[in-house]
């Protein structure tokens, strides 16, 4: 099906440093795709190689899939596995938490856009130790805060804005639109959230 060179280049593109074998990767992808998390979790906990494997371009990594499917407990397990391998002190530049799907969305972008505040807290950390993820922009220049506004997730917006108030977070996308444009257009923010946006711009 794949030549040795194709197998090698495919795994390198996905950011895997030590690949046991192509069949293991294919099986891992299939297990994630089919929702057989009982098979995924042990491998994910034991081998950091699996943290950045792209399941498919549109869905992203296993963590993207878990977030998108709304599996809170699973997200907690996967994030804990990533942190146990990468360390907790400083968010690495190559962290699996920064992995993106085809739109450039990190798992935090997805959690914010779906309104999963518990997942946002898990990814960012109880004390905001990974809050720098709030500054990451996707391919359209949207931060997780921008995505929360774009999809009408008021509670997530307020939480992310509060956690990141000491960071310089872009409130504009690459087209030059800011979150105030979208919040007015969608008419979803209450006074408190609206005031927070207005003061920041």
TrEMBL record:
The protein's name: Uncharacterized protein
Cellular component, GO annotation: plasma membrane
Pfam families associated with the record: Ank_2
Lineage: Eukaryota, Viridiplantae, Streptophyta, Embryophyta, Tracheophyta
Membrane topology of the entry: Peripheral membrane protein
Organism: Phaseolus coccineus (Scarlet runner bean)
Highest taxon listed in the record's lineage: Eukaryota
Location in or out of the cell: Cell membrane
Major subcellular location class: membrane
């Amino acid at each position: 099906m794949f030549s040795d060179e194709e197998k090698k280049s495919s795994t390198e593109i996905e950011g895997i440093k030590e690949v046991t074998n192509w069949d293991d990767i294919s099986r891992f992808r299939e297990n994630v795709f089919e929702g057989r998390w009982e098979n995924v979790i042990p491998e994910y906990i034991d081998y950091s190689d699996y943290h950045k494997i792209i399941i498919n371009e549109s869905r992203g990594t296993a963590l993207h899939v878990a977030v998108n499917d709304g599996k809170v407990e699973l997200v907690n397990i996967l994030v804990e596995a990533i942190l146990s391998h990468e360390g907790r002190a400083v968010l690495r530049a190559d962290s699996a938490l920064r992995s993106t799907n085809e739109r450039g969305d990190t798992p935090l972008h997805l959690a914010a856009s779906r309104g999963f505040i518990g997942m946002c807290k898990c990814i960012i950390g109880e004390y905001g130790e990974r809050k720098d993820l709030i500054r990451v922009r996707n391919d359209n220049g949207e931060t997780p805060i921008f995505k929360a506004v774009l999809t009408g997730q008021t509670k997530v917006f307020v939480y992310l804005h509060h956690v990141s108030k000491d960071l310089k977070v872009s409130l504009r996308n690459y087209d030059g639109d800011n979150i105030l444009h979208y919040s007015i257009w969608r008419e979803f923010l209450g006074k408190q959230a609206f005031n927070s946006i207005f003061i920041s711009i």
